[in-house]
Amino acid sequence: MKRREFLGVAGWLFAWPYAAHAQGQIPVIGFLSSRSLSDSVALVSAFRKGLNEAGFVEGQNIAIEYRWADGQYDRLPAIAAELVQRGAVMLIATGGEPSALAAKAATSTIPIVFTAGGDPVKIGLVESLNRPGGNATGVSLLTTAPEAKRLGLIHELISRINMLGVLVDPNYQEAQAQARELDDASRQISQPIHIEYARNDSELEAAFTALVRAGSDALLVCADPFFDTRRDRIIAFAAERRLPAIYQFREYALDGGLMSYGISLPDGYRQVGNYAAQILKGKRPADLPIVQSIKFEFVINLKTARSLGLEIPAMLLARADEVIE
Known about the structure:
- By secondary structure, this protein is α/β, with parallel strands linked by helices.
- Helices cover about 40% and strands about 20% of the residues.
- It has two domains: about 5-140 and about 265-295, Rossmann fold (3-Layer(aba) Sandwich); about 145-265 and about 295-325, Response regulator (Rossmann fold, 3-Layer(aba) Sandwich), CATH 3.40.50.
- It contains 14 helices and 13 strands.
- Helix 3 packs parallel to helix 12.
- The longest helix has 16 residues, at about 265-280.
């Protein structure tokens, strides 16, 4: 290793190639997520792919300790602190802002690579998109940005929605912005909406009841990691009530949801793995610009549409990136 590279990495407290050789150990990466393992298998695979592309293989020259909050954001600070105490050389904070903020609060020295759904500058994760500064960088998945677009798509499918039900998680950092964006967008097209908030299982069930009571005849589920961990339950509710619904990720449509519009989540996690590899090779988080996702996917599940008695307009089908038969 060149002297300049060694000094740069040592400044971040993990000159691991030298230390690992001297001690016969491999570096340990701490991976924390607000999501659950069951809904993140493909994402972990994509993260590993990003590492593998740069020559890092789990179990050979790196080790990874995984921790899952299962949608319970209040568990994340303790999880992040535990990984720091166990000597992780890097924290991978996925599942959006809750994980990223917990990691940031746990350490100001250990490198962090995060995923964020919104603007990481606005919530204080980094100083700027081009020059993050500090010990953190990552990928802005732009999951919350297209809420108005999702509203427009469901409205285009069913132009006469009497009441569009909306699910928002008040514990998510972008919740107020999501509700405000949808409120503005709904007024522009004269589409009545009814917003229900849910941050846990009991509130989610109560929200379902309230949405039915409000006369919702379609559903928009706002981007939020907690809702991702309860994906099956939300899709089942929409099916039980025969509600056309739109979600943020392709995985919802694959599991039986009607439509989804959002970024390619595995692609974002692959980029996280790539950044982790660059840092292991000596790059500083402060010098790695925030990556913003640009690959958006519009997915329609025709089988679900038929079960709801819906005919998807030809123009909408033509714009879909994927149609599930």
